[in-house]
């Protein structure tokens, strides 16, 4: 057995140093990969434009089927829905001014109600279509945004039914009660009620939009608060545009609700640290 020479000993690499260096490199690289993981696409699938269009067609088809089923289902129980929407107009008699007017009103009420009933399925189809293109960070924001938007939309419908519609009808009834008898067209009444309810539900989406803009870093809470003067003007214009009536009370109530929602959204963005 021969003893290795000094030259051979010096030529051999230090394996312990190389292994420790590689181990430390893996350890240091791990946090970086964890930090970049939020911007990864979990479902990074290559699809052609034709495939995207085909999937979009299928999603729209499923959503339309859900809307159709919802409309048919609501039409079978349309009388209780009509009676529920007539509650704010207590003491008013409704007239059918043309043949089949109530039938078309029933179709309109069933259509609005069917879209509302089918909205969970519509939301599911939208989410299923856009989900593969979202990063992990964006997916974490999707659930709270959808939940908050749904809750606020229902709150807007309830606010219109409980506060806006009775206030507007009371204004119209008391204004001319000594001059004219209150006999209203059923078609005009339901057009007023349905438009006011759904426009109020859409107006209640303001905090969701603010939170989304803040989380994406587009607008900060300080910038939102700095433009409060423009918000007051915009709320007045929005109240005049969204309300189908021309009475100042309904417009003021909706404008005040928009201002309150906006400043509530500013507080939400502030709580999110943006």
Give a description of the structure:
This protein has 274 residues and is mainly alpha-helical. The protein has one domain. The protein has helices at residues 6-11, 15-36, 49-76, 78-85, 101-130, 136-175, 186-203, 206-215, 221-226, 228-242, 248-271; strands spanning 93-95, 183-185. Strands 1-2 form a two-stranded parallel ribbon. Helix 4 crosses helix 5 (101-130) and helix 6 runs antiparallel to helix 11. The radius of gyration is 30 Å and the shape is flat. The model is unreliable at 5-36 (pLDDT under 50).
Helix/strand layout:
Blueprint: H1 6-11, H2 15-36, H3 49-76, H4 78-85, E1 93-95, H5 101-130, H6 136-175, E2 183-185, H7 186-203, H8 206-215, H9 221-226, H10 228-242, H11 248-271
Parallel strand pairs: 1-2
Key descriptive features of the protein:
2 strands, flat, mainly alpha, 274 residues, 11 helices, two-stranded parallel sheet
Helix-strand pattern, N to C? HHHHEHHEHHHHH
Oligomer: single chain
- The strand count comes to 2
Strand content: under 5%
- Provide the low-confidence segments as ranges: 5-36
Give the tally of structural domains: 1
What is the mean predicted local confidence, pLDDT?
A: 77
């Amino acid at each position: 057995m021969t003893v290795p020479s000094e030259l051979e000993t010096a030529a051999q690499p230090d394996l312990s140093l190389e292994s420790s260096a590689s181990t430390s490199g893996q350890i240091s690289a791990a946090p970086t990969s964890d930090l970049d993981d939020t911007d990864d696409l979990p479902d990074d699938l290559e699809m052609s434009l034709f495939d995207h269009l085909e999937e979009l067609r299928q999603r729209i088809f499923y959503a339309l089927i859900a809307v159709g089923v919802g409309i048919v289902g609501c039409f079978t129980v349309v009388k209780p829905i009509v009676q529920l929407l007539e509650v704010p107009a207590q003491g008013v008699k409704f007239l059918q001014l043309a043949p089949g007017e109530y039938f078309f009103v029933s179709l309109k009420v069933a259509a609005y109600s069917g879209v509302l009933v089918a909205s969970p399925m519509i939301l599911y189809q939208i989410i299923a279509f856009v989900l593969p293109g979202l990063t992990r960070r964006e997916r974490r924001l999707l659930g709270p945004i959808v939940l908050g938007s749904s809750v606020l939309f229902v709150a807007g419908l309830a606010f219109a039914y409980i506060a806006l519609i009775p206030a507007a009808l009371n204004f119209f009834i008391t204004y001319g009660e000594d001059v004219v008898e209150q006999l209203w067209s059923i078609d005009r009444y339901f057009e007023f009620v349905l438009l006011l309810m759904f426009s109020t539900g859409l107006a209640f989406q303001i905090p969701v939009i603010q939170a989304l803009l803040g989380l994406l870093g587009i607008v900060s809470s300080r910038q939102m608060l700095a433009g409060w003067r423009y918000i007051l003007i915009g709320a007045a214009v929005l109240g005049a545009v969204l309300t189908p009536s021309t009475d100042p009370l309904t417009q003021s109530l909706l404008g005040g609700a928009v201002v309150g929602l906006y400043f509530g959204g500013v507080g939400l963005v502030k709580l999110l640290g943006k």
